[in-house]
Amino acid sequence: MRKVKENGAEIRLVGDNSYEMVATDEQLEKLARAEAEIEAEIKAWEDALNESLDEREEREARQKELKEKNKWSTKKKVIVFGLIFFVFIGLPIIEGYQNSKLVEEGTSLNAEIVGRHVEKEFMFTHPTLVVEVDGKKHNVWVSEETYNGAEWLGRLKVIKTKDGKVEKDPRYEGEDLITSY
Fold first, then answer.
1. Engineering a disulfide at 18: which of 14, 74, 127, 161 sits with its beta carbon 3.0 to 4.6 angstroms away?
2. pLDDT of residue 98 exceeding 70
3. What CA–CA distance (Å, rounded) separates 45 from 39?
4. Cα-based torsion angle of the residue sequence 95, 96, 97, 99 in order, rounded to the nearest 10 degrees
5. CATH classification code of 107-179
6. What are the residue boundaries of the structural domains of the chain, listed by start?
7. How far apart are CA 41 and CA 115, in angstroms?
């Protein structure tokens, strides 16, 4: 009871062994200030916690964006590298092979087929088409497929070399060598 009296609280007897404590206006104001301070501290902690959660979510979102961006960048790099490789290395190799025969060895022509026969050597037989180029007849060895698909007075894709020889065009095979009117 002494502590209660020192604090200035009033105690009233309400019934048998029941007491009621009544606070003064000063004590109520003190209590309200303490309560307000505690609520302010709690609010500050909540704000700090929410802020840190927002920062964490932003960091996670940035990391996710960077991962997605990096994935796209990697795909994009592979595609670009593949296209550059194909354009600057693949196509020149293909065209170089196709054109090397033409440039080094002669020009491409569609020669008229004027005959056909089979040449026999010691162990081999060669289906041969006779084509006319610049008024001269030339024998051109071809595959059986080309030989069977050739028609009289049809055209055969050939290359006339610089030294005057006529060979089938290496860019084409089979029935692709033959053109019709």
1. 14
2. no
3. 10
4. 80
5. 2.40.50.660
6. 107-179
7. 107
Tokens of 89: 């290395």
Distance CA 52, CA 74 (A): 32
Please check the confidence at residue 24 and state whether its pLDDT lies above 60.
yes
Q: Give the Cα separation of 25 and 68 in Å (integer).
A: 63
**How far is 160 from 102, CA to CA, in rounded Å?**
8
| pLDDT at residue 28, rounded to an integer | 79
What percentage of the chain's residues is helix, strand, coil (to nearest 5)?
55, 30, 15
> Is 5 exposed, middle or buried (CB count within 10 Å of its CB: 0-12, 13-18, 19+)?
exposed
Phi, psi angles (nearest 5°) of residue 161: -80, 170
How does pLDDT run across 28-69, given as a tens digit for each residue?
A: 788 889 899 999 999 999 999 999 999 999 999 998 888 777
Nearest 5°: phi and psi at 6?
-65, -35
pLDDT of residue 89: 81
- Which one-letter DSSP state was computed for residue 24? -
Separation between Cα atoms, residue 1 and residue 10, nearest integer Å: 10
Question: Of 177, 93, 180, 104, nearest to 143 (Cα)?
Answer: 177
Least trusted range by pLDDT, from 32-46, 96-110, 146-160: 96-110
